[in-house]
């Protein structure tokens, strides 16, 4: 348990004390089964899988929350509320921020996930990117570009509660266990949310703003391809302590993630197309 006393941070309060939990205090992470080993091999005549994730049916109301704290930093454009990024659909119905991956892969290409996808920034009181991919056993790099107090509170496959009282200082945390990590801010910015997926192999992709994805250097063969979405509905809220103002605020609780699965056969040096449709 670490005690941190930041001074002179806007919105932090004169006597802010942050008790920071580093790691998993329950020991549950240490008691889990060892991670399956992924073997890097030379992929000869590999192919690819590409496609688009689109929305089908009526588009639901996209949740927004009012910006209630640090408007100079959090709301420079004066919008007064914030899109929670839980469901991002473009005009052609492409769905961004969906993870598409191959199931049960134990060998294949070398790791090539971009460093930008495992580096989290806190910018204008938004987590960037909204969905991260971090190889299991590797470190997530985290910083804040904002001049106000933020925290990165992780729950799930990793459990950390990290304060960011200073701008542009990186903190690194290793992700030891594969799975989902839910990320929220405990400094009163209740709209801030993101997800990190700690992944056991490199055959993962996050759909872009048009809903497009590509998986490259796939060994020839047949695969189960899965699309994962974090969930977009607000189902309840929880009372939390704003560690800066020392007051309680309400933070939304979201619906559970959803998955869709298809099959694909990859032929040498060819592309296989797999499209997904998401709906209510």
Please tell me about this protein's structure.
- With 280 residues, the protein is mostly beta strands.
- 3% of the residues lie in helices and 46% in strands.
- The chain has two helices and 25 strands.
- Strands 11-17-16-13-14 form a five-stranded mixed beta sheet, with no helix packed on it. Strands 4, 19, 24 and 25 form a four-stranded mixed beta sheet that branches. Strands 18-7-20-23 form a four-stranded antiparallel beta sheet, with no helix packed on it.
- The relative contact order is 0.25.
Taking the sheet with the most strands, its summary is: 5 strands, mixed
**Number of β-strand runs:** 25
Q: State the helix count.
A: 2
Q: What is the SS-derived class?
A: mainly beta
The span between the termini is 42 Å
Q: What value does the average pLDDT take? A: 89
Domain count: the total is 1
Give a short summary of the structure:
By secondary structure, the protein is an all-beta fold. It has helices at residues 28-31, 71-74; strands spanning 2-4, 18-20, 39-40, 47-55, 64-66, 81-83, 99-102, 107-108, 119-123, 126-128, 131-135, 139-144, 150-156, 160-164, 171-174, 179-184, 193-199, 204-206, 212-218, 221-229, 234-242, 247-254, 258-266, 271-273, 276-278.
Provide keyphrases for this structure.
280 residues; mainly beta; 5-stranded mixed sheet; 4-stranded mixed sheet; 2 helices; 25 strands
Helices and strands in order:
Blueprint: E1 2-4, E2 18-20, H1 28-31, E3 39-40, E4 47-55, E5 64-66, H2 71-74, E6 81-83, E7 99-102, E8 107-108, E9 119-123, E10 126-128, E11 131-135, E12 139-144, E13 150-156, E14 160-164, E15 171-174, E16 179-184, E17 193-199, E18 204-206, E19 212-218, E20 221-229, E21 234-242, E22 247-254, E23 258-266, E24 271-273, E25 276-278
Parallel strand pairs: 3-8, 4-24, 4-25, 9-12, 11-17
Antiparallel strand pairs: 1-2, 4-19, 5-6, 7-18, 7-20, 9-10, 12-15, 13-14, 13-16, 16-17, 20-23, 21-22
């Amino acid at each position: 348990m670490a005690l941190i006393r930041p001074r002179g941070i806007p919105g932090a309060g004169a006597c802010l004390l942050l008790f920071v939990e580093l790691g998993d205090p329950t020991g549950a992470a240490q008691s889990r089964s060892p991670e399956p080993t992924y073997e890097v091999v030379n992929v000869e005549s590999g192919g690819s899988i590409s496609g688009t994730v689109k929305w089908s049916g009526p588009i639901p109301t996209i949740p927004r929350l009012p910006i209630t704290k640090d408007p100079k930093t959090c709301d420079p454009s004066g919008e007064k509320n914030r899109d929670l990024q839980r469901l991002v659909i473009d005009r052609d119905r492409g769905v961004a921020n969906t993870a598409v991956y191959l199931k049960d892969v134990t060998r294949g290409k070398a790791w090539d996930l971009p460093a930008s996808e495992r580096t989290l920034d806190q910018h204008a009181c938004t987590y960037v990117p909204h969905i991260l991919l971090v190889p299991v056993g590797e470190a997530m790099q985290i910083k804040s570009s904002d001049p106000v107090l933020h925290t990165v509170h992780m729950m799930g496959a990793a459990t950390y509660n990290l304060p960011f009282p200073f701008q542009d200082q990186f903190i690194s945390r290793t992700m030891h266990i594969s799975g989902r990590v839910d990320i929220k801010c405990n400094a009163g910015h209740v709209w801030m949310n993101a997800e990190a997926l700690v992944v056991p192999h490199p055959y993962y992709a996050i759909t872009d703003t048009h809903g497009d994805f590509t998986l490259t250097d796939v060994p020839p063969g047949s695969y189960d391809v899965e699309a994962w979405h974090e969930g977009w509905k607000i189902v309840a809220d929880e009372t939390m302590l704003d560690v800066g103002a020392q007051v309680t605020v309400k933070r939304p609780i979201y619906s559970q993630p959803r998955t869709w699965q298809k099959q694909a056969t990859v032929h040498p040096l060819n592309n296989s197309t797999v499209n997904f449709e998401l709906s209510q």
